[in-house]
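Predict structure. Chain length: 454.
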Amino acid sequence: MRFLASFEVPKKKGLAFAKCDSVPPLMLLTGPNGSGKSTLLAEIATGKHNPHLARFLYVGPDRNISRTSVSQAELLQGKFDVLAQLRPRAEGTPEQNLRPFDLLKKALGQISFELNNAVASYYLKHEKIERGEIPDPWEPLRALTSSLLPHMNFLNIEMDSPGPLRCMWKVHDDKVELDDLSSGEKSVIQLAFPIVEHRIRTILAKTKGLEHVIQQKIAVLIDEPELHLHPNLQLKILDFYREEAAKEDTQVILATHSPTMVENASCEELFLLRPKEACKDGENQLGRIADDEEKLQVLRELFGSTSNLTAMRPIVVVEGTKGSDTKLYGALHTGFRQVTVIPGGGKGECKALLDNLRPALKMLHGQLNAVALLDRDLDSRIENGIHLLPVAMIENLLLDPKAIWEAIQSVLDKTPFSSLSDVSNAIDKILDSLEKEEIERRAIFALGEVKYFR
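Prediction complete.
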């Protein structure tokens, strides 16, 4: 059985009700801002909804590592590990924990200290140590960097008395201390460390002859794993979680807005948390987006991307293709920031897309709707849900002299214009030069193309 089989979270802050009867090994929670993803994650992490399960590790979005100095004397004060710091406190929620990753260096030092003691005890007991007889507890950390950060590798923990502990890495051809790694490199180590430390301590327990002590399962809950990471690295960390969750002792639940992660999640992994306004009283806000991969792929193609699907905003279908003139809508009016704009291709394709989007939207949110905003032409007929631009193409709206004048203020010295009227006159001159071509175009449209024969 997986570590967390199910959960049910009643009203908490902005969350109304969320329930899952079958939690997968890897679970991605996504949805619009304000739907309650962080609240749900933190509430699950307290373990109070599953009191018989006790190994929840919560990693919040605040993961900045402060520079720290650790001495050998601190390591003698007692056992310390990041896993213990990530467990929710009995008296509160995970957000009340101190910043555990400020103590990451101390955790690595503690592991090194315990390893040295374990090796010494092993030698005293057996009077010799053959090469390869003691497993390398740092192997999970080396495997992590080899897979996700191939330009760097863990070297060792330097504890030269009386100086401070130094956690050393090889980055390209340089030796770099933990504090001096980039924010992205630190972030990868932070995101993986709860699982990595669990693996390290499993190996360390074998060295101590305590294999039976460390067989506990863990559930790692991470809020916004995408922070500080390039999209390609986001995909790699997702694959890392997927591989680890395939093992019987680990489960991973993520709350994310990352388009890269949600686009590459499977139907079994991807869950949408709808805003409570999208649900009836007592209705479950949480559910899989699709029951199988085929349905999920259809929805992705229909909405253009998984991010468009999970944004839970009204949809405006416009003519054009992705990366073309669709960007102009946001520049022309701030209202387009409040909707999801989807390029639908030609006029007929836009109308067909609109017909398919509407029932899909109703399933997600009964109050959401989709409309089409199409170019006006000589055969424009207004149909249900279809609205027409006042011009034949969106670019024509850019012929507004005032809009152009305001847009060029920062580079005015590089233009021949000194006033709004200069811009207006320049546009009129261009349009006058195109009059003959426009008359010809309209005549051909009205009369049809005429072929002359001798």
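Summary: The mean pLDDT is 83.
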